[in-house]
Prior knowledge:
The complex is a heterodimer of chains A (778) and B (195). By secondary structure, chain A is of the alpha/beta class. Chain A contains 23 helices and 28 strands. Among the domains of chain A are: 209-378 and 598-614, Dimethylsulfoxide Reductase, domain 2, CATH 3.40.228.10; 634-777, Barwin-like endoglucanases, CATH 2.40.40.20. In chain A, the strands form 7 sheets. Chain A has a 7-stranded mixed β-sheet, with helices on one face. A 6-stranded mixed β-sheet of chain A has the order 22-24-23-28-21-25. A 4-stranded parallel β-sheet of chain A has the order 11-10-9-13. Chain B is mainly α and 195 residues long. Chain B is 62% helix and 2% strand. Chain B has helices spanning 13-27, 32-40, 42-54, 66-78, 90-95, 101-112, 128-140, 144-169, 175-188; one strand at 115-117. In chain B, α1 runs antiparallel to α7 (128-140) and α8 (144-169) crosses α9. The longest helix of chain B has 26 residues, at 144-169. The radius of gyration of chain B is 16 Å and the shape is globular. β1 of chain A pairs antiparallel with β1 (115-117) of chain B, so a sheet runs across the interface.
Amino acid sequence: MKLRRREFLKLSGATVGAMALGGSAQAQLFPDGFPNPFRSPPGKWHSKDDVTTAYSYCEICFWKCGVKAYVQGGKVRKVDGYEGNPKSRGMLCPRGQGGVATTYDPDRLKKPLIRVEGTERGAGQYREASWDEAYDYITEQMNQIKFEHGTESVAFFGHGTGDAWFASYLPGAWGSPNAAKPSVSLCTAPRETASQYTFGRGISGHEQIDWDETDYIVLIGHHIGEDTHNTQLQDFATALKRGAQLVVVDPRFSVAASKAKDWLPIKPATDTALLLAWANVLVEEGLYDAEYVEKYTVGFEQLAAHVAQYTPEWAAEITDIPADTIRRIAREMAAHAPRAVLPVGRHVVWYGPDDMHRMRSLYIVNVLLGNYGMPGGYYFCDAPVVESYPHPDLPLSPAAGGCGGGATEVATDSPFRDSVDRGKFFGSATAVQEFIEPMITGQPYPIKGLFSYGVNLFHTIPMVERTKQALKELDLYVAIDILPMEHVMWADVILPESTYLERYDDLLLQAHKTPFISARFPAVPPLYDTRSAFDMAKELGERLGLGEYFPWENVEEYLDRRLSSIGQSLEALKEQGTIVRRGRPYFADWERLNRNPIGTPSGKIEIYSERFAEAGLDPLPLFVPPIEGPSGMYRLLYGRSPVHTFARTHNNPILMEAHGENGVWISTSEAARLGIRHNEYVFLENQDGAREGPVRAYVTERIRNDCVYLVHGFGHKAPLMRIANGRGASDTHLQTRYDLDPVSGGAGLRNNWVKIVPGAPDPQHPPVAWLAREGSRA
Amino acid sequence: MKHDATARPVASADVVAQALQLVAATYRSPDAALRDDLDSGAFATAVAELADVAGVMAPPLDGFAWPKVQTSYVALFVTNAAGVPAPPYVGLALDGELLGPSAAALKAFLAHHGVETATGWHDLADHVAAVAEAGILLADAGRDDAACILLERFLSPWFQRYASEVVATDDSGFYGPLTEFLGSLLSEVSCEAAA
Lengths: 778, 195
């Protein structure tokens, strides 16, 4: 049958402007010499000339490795480490290699969305919006909140490179001190506060361990090889290959422990006791570096008197580590000093009240070994200086702080109220978990608006149900992200961000043994209707009447102007990717210039802190006995996977092929007692009845009897993330309590306990590759 | 996706053009133009005429609310807390990956025929609506053969892959019936023999 010819009605909207005729139509469908695209011959898929490269730095974790992105046919085909960048040296971890898949994830957020009026937050009812409409909606709501409650009633959370705009700059311009980053109070706060008050310097985003020179390494709860930071892992492996000795202190036989000469399976929450006992041995046996201590420190006499009580025998009772072992390791450290080091870890919010003390204890043991600022210990690193783009002073100094140290408190004569968490702890940075309660109670004043930039609220902040309740109380919730994480689908407005391969970002000014400057150049144009945080912040700022703080034309002009302050240009950096400077890693480098790298009031390393004493805090580190859990429950420990970052990468098929679900580690003897078999699915139920799973039981000799362990980031509850959804268990959802460190504001997360509930059904997860390919048919 | 073109009735150029217009109008982001077509009855008339000549049952096009059309579009094709049932990308339907070999083939094909994405288009070039629109442009330029290739080799596989998902999950009363209709239409007729 042949259909009849008919005259049809024309639809007015049929030509929507998606496509255009850009040239003359060809006479032949597939003319001679033109490869029929439907019958491409097998073989090489490109010629060398087809491939372009762009320099960038990785965003899949926050080591920020320098990368080269290779583009062919308008698509990023591969990302490699850039050999000229000190944080990658030509190599990348699996996450960096697999990061391309995030850009081409079909589940990506694609367009601005506005929650349909009258629907509940979390119901997921959205309509598309133009950027103009989305911006107008946000600015109208923000101005309404400002009118009713003041600018401070809008809070800003951020994580990732763009958080400089959404958790620092925009809040400062808008006038809200309520800006916070989980990378502070849910990660590094105790170590940064301890470092600032001991050395007058932060640790910042690069742990400055002199791996090249060290001969003896003691890791305390530091999971190198699991929390994969590219060059840190390279350096660690090289040190071991060179013959450096390794001791690992951990309730769990970690990957690092498998490389160690000694594994000390410490009782959880007792690390400070061990560190104080090591200080005791170093002092009592005269093994400390007396010359170093005399020259560079203050407060040794008070420390000596203080640690006299902390004998190895005292610590052995607390830690389950024999006194002889404690003594032996201390002596070995001293024998290798100053080329013996106890590296600082990154995620150090473990037990709350004890955390800052533990970090001070760790620093003090290093100082007794005389290694801070010396080869083989900790080196000094400062970020290269590049001038800011000229702009008027912000009404408020950015309040979130960051890995590098504390923030500025609101001045007493400021017209702005102090942040809602002020007074809850001593430190000056803000604590993201303390912002939730004011959203519910309105005390000390209401938080009615929230921006969440790249922060997975339900996999980052403990007490998830409280967070959900808080979101319901808001007048405005804006989520800026790349993927439709569960919390995103609660927002009033969703702003889709372009990925790190599609956008410029601000310069990376990296503190390092060799400080360097990196730029991020887009390898491909943004897919869909997505934009960078830089552009979003500027546009919102201008609509909020804050245009004077965003005087730049565009990101290229902004970057070029900044680079011009050091005689560079964006065009030049495009060809080079990274500019490396010389550092001043050791005391000797500073002394040659008659300068002092120690930033404390005394100008020396403050073993005894007068500032803590004046504030009524303990001037020397104390051991705080651990909080004990309910009978029959196990302390819940958590850690990292080398192929995943936080809860961000679990929809990436390449990375999920490598590690597709977590398991709960439980000791062989406890599993036998409970009748649990290896690989059997179980539920986890915590002290407050929160339940997670099904999750596989990983029955092993590699963990103590009094704790269990989960890799963080699994257990997503977002069906839209077709690969991540429902795989494994979430540690965050089992963290229904935390204990505040009263000094740093860190939230101790390891005072949660779980019981194992057998009999969970096998969820029969489809293969990741099939899910990635078949998508919604799963 | 292999089609047995000879076993199916051959559609005329006008039918192909009308089918492409309906596909473009249906799967683009719902805007004022679509609403005007719906309100004026032009959309329903076009559907009815196409159904008539193709011998396919026309879907009911009443009883749905415009706001529901908007939210259902997002839920079906853009972002959905319960999972996007039908990502509107023909390359994904063919290859199981975005911007894979089929999307590259499409890009090369369109470039060869002088068609490119317009500046204001903020989505992928293999979006169902964009591919349909490219077909309209080619048909208007007298390249019925090229328009037919887009319909047969790119759009039809998308319907084969995703039409049942749209029908099963649509709650607007608009996209489900219309997708079922268009899917049936494309499976019933062929245009390559004519081209």
